[in-house]
Specification:
Layout (H helix, E strand, L loop, with lengths): L6 H27 L19 H20 L6
Helix pairs in contact: 1-2
Length: 78
């Protein structure tokens, strides 16, 4: 029947939804904290070197993977 959904399709939709939530979480963290950008230009001497675009992208990918792991965890019952 067209109204019935297959279990595989439901699992794919749930995984897709979790990835979307993880992406939104990653975006929120990255924007609010400046995660992965490295040093910012500041007055005076700074010993840190800014990250290359590749290093910045790698940091964001790692953050996304962490967010996916958090979103995939089952909720703890109280």
């Amino acid at each position: 029947m067209p109204d019935e959904t297959k279990p595989e399709a439901a699992k794919e939709d749930a995984a897709h939804s979790r990835d979307e939530v993880a992406l939104k979480l990653m975006q929120f963290i990255a924007v609010t904290t400046g995660y992965g950008k490295g040093a910012t230009n500041a007055a005076g001497f700074s010993g840190k070197v800014s990250k290359t675009p590749e290093e910045y992208a790698e940091a964001l990918i790692q953050l996304f993977e962490k967010c996916r792991a958090v979103v995939a965890r089952p909720l703890l019952e109280k």
